[in-house]
């Protein structure tokens, strides 16, 4: 039972354009969501998070949108840069399940120069 | 501020052996979570420790265990290694383990022959 799903295994965009990565979840108890970026042979790097009381959070080039009724979140990267090429994971947690993040399978983003 | 450190970075063991992995969290972080990453299963939660107590546990057999010391450093142990235990083991620290960002170490790559 995969509670967090990233249905697109890969995404390719041109440098300077917008990258949109999507994530769906099934557990309505989730109240905190995070995005991580991961390079090979490294641990995931935290990018941005959002609480379920918000529908948008922005940090520089990164914006996360949360649609609770659709149980959907997305990460927008504008403008995309070649250094953004990596695997992106969305993760979710609920406040009753301490320290436990449920991860999606990841989306590989390639930004072409 | 120093990040999360994990030792060793690489390990090769044979079936039936046991292994101990170490994690030092970010200074001031009291929660340490452990994850297993494999190509087939993605990132899966093993357990979480806070103030030397295991607060949460994932769906892994009892061969996987851990502990946390008074300085918040944590170790995980895998006994009677199986081929399927080959994976990247990641630890992550956060201030309290609740709705907080978790910051990951670089991981320990375990290969079981």
**Beta fraction of chain A:** over 45%
Low-confidence residue ranges of chain B: none
Class based on secondary structure composition and strand pairing of chain B: mainly beta
The secondary-structure element order of chain B is: EEEEEEEEEEE
The rounded distance between the terminal residues' Cα atoms of chain B is 37 Å
Count of helical stretches of chain B: 0
Largest sheet report of chain B: 7 strands, mixed
Which features characterize this protein?
heterodimer, A: 113 residues, mainly beta, 11 strands, 53% strand, B: 113 residues, seven-stranded mixed β-sheet
General description of the model:
The complex is a heterodimer of chains A (113) and B (113). By secondary structure, chain A is mostly beta strands. Chain A contains no helices and 11 strands. Chain A has strands spanning 4-5, 10-14, 19-25, 32-38, 45-51, 56-59, 62-67, 72-77, 86-93, 102-103, 107-112. In chain A, strands 2, 4, 5, 9, 10 and 11 form a 6-stranded mixed beta sheet that branches. In chain A, strands 1-3-8-7-6 form a 5-stranded antiparallel beta sheet, with no helix packed on it. The model of chain A has no long low-confidence stretch (mean pLDDT 94). In chain B, strands 2, 4, 5, 6, 9, 10 and 11 form a 7-stranded mixed beta sheet that branches. Chain B is globular. The termini of chain B are far apart. The A-B interface holds A 31-32, 34, 36, 41-46, 49, 51, 89, 91, 93, 95, 97-106 and B 4, 6, 31-33, 35, 42-45, 48-50, 55-56, 58, 90, 92, 94, 97-99, 101-107, 109.
How would you concisely characterize the structure shown here?
The complex is a heterodimer of chains A (113) and B (113). With 113 residues, chain A is mainly beta.
List the helices and strands and how they pair.
The complex is a heterodimer of chains A (113) and B (113).
Chain A (H helix, E strand, L loop, with lengths): L3 E2 L4 E5 L4 E7 L6 E7 L6 E7 L4 E4 L2 E6 L4 E6 L8 E8 L8 E2 L3 E6 L1
Parallel strand pairs in A: 2-11
Antiparallel strand pairs in A: 1-3, 3-8, 4-5, 4-9, 6-7, 7-8, 9-10, 9-11
Chain B lengths: L4 E3 L2 E4 L5 E6 L6 E8 L3 E9 L2 E5 L6 E5 L5 E5 L8 E8 L8 E2 L3 E5 L1
Parallel strand pairs in B: 2-11
Antiparallel strand pairs in B: 1-3, 3-8, 4-5, 4-9, 5-6, 7-8, 9-10, 9-11
């Amino acid at each position: 039972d995969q509670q967090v799903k990233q249905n697109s295994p890969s995404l390719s965009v041109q440098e300077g354009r917008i990258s949109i990565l999507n994530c769906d979840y099934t557990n309505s108890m989730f109240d905190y969501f995070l995005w991580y970026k991961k390079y090979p042979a490294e641990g995931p790097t935290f990018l941005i998070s959002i609480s379920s009381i918000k529908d948008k959070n922005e940090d520089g080039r990164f914006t996360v949108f949360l649609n609770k009724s659709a149980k959907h979140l997305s990460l927008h990267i504008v403008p995309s840069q070649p250094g953004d090429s990596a695997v992106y994971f969305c993760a979710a947690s609920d406040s009753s399940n301490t320290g436990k993040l449920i991860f999606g399978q990841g989306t590989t983003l390639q930004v072409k120069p | 501020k120093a990040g999360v450190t994990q030792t060793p970075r690489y390990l090769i063991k044979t079936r039936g052996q046991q292994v101990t992995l170490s994690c030092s969290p970010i200074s001031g972080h009291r929660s340490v979570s452990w994850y297993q990453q494999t190509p087939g299963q993605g990132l899966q939660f093993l357990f979480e420790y806070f103030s030397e107590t295991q607060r949460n546990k994932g769906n892994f057999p009892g061969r996987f265990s851990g502990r946390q010391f008074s300085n918040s450093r944590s170790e995980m142990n895998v006994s009677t290694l199986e081929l399927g235990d080959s994976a990247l083991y990641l630890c992550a620290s956060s201030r309290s383990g609740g709705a907080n960002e978790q910051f990951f170490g670089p991981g320990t790559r375990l290969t079981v022959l």
